[in-house]
UniProtKB/TrEMBL annotation:
PANTHER family: DNA POLYMERASE III SUBUNIT EPSILON. SUPFAM superfamilies: Ribonuclease H-like (SSF53098). This is DNA polymerase-3 subunit epsilon. Gene3D superfamilies: Ribonuclease H-like superfamily/Ribonuclease H. The lineage of its organism: Bacteria, Pseudomonadati, Pseudomonadota, Alphaproteobacteria, Hyphomicrobiales. Residues 2-175 form the Exonuclease domain. GO terms for molecular function: 3'-5' exonuclease activity; nucleic acid binding. One of its GO terms (cellular component) is cytosol. Pfam families: RNase_T. GO terms for biological process: DNA replication proofreading.
Length: 187
């Protein structure tokens, strides 16, 4: 079984090292059946303030995180889920999510996740008329997938619609998977 990890994070801001995670989601999909076989969805106490712009985007306040575990408690589980995958699919994963995650894994003493990736934003230029990198709503529109802006930026929602778009784009030949040998080496 080839497992794909669809992942997304929400953060207190954009700078690794200064900012922290407030939400982590990873789901594992079986490539053949395209069924989700496992998921981890966790809000996280960042132990610091949340930037106003970040809070405006994801709508998560410090009050929403009272009683949530800290990253050092969540990181081993998150690392284990991503480590099970043969490849990682993320929207802006190569440019933001995965570097941010790997910084945070390192910060708590875990090794980086080094898996083949498909970044649905960077590899999704086919989805926009002028060839720019699409936001998730534009990608959903191009794939004729429903997109509810009121649910956007909740990590589990974003990954669900992203994976629907990824599978559609894969069927249409717009996304390509890393070579099977590369997937086997990463396993």
């Amino acid at each position: 079984m080839t497992l794909l990890a669809g992942t997304d994070i929400e953060t207190t801001g954009l700078e690794p090292g200064d900012h922290r995670l407030v939400e982590f989601y990873a789901g594992l999909w079986d490539l053949r059946s395209r069924k989700r076989v496992f998921e981890l969805n966790q809000r996280i106490d960042p132990q610091r303030s949340i930037g106003i712009e970040a809070q405006r985007v994801h709508k998560i306040s410090l009050g929403d995180l009272v009683g949530c575990p800290t990253w050092d408690m969540v990181a081993p589980k998150a690392h284990a889920v991503l480590s099970r995958a043969d490849m990682i699919v993320a929207h802006n994963g190569d440019g933001f999510d995965l570097p941010f995650l790997n910084y945070e894994f390192k910060r708590v003493g875990l090794p980086p996740i080094e898996k083949p990736t498909v970044d649905t934003m960077l590899q999704g230029r086919w989805a926009t008329p002028i060839g720019k990198s699409p936001n998730l709503g534009e990608l959903c529109f191009a794939c004729d997938m429903p997109y509810d802006a009121s649910k956007a930026h909740a990590a589990d929602y974003d990954v669900g619609v992203m994976m629907d778009c990824f599978f559609a784009g894969l069927d249409w030949g717009f996304y390509t998977l890393p070579e099977i040998e590369e997937l086997a080496r990463a396993a």
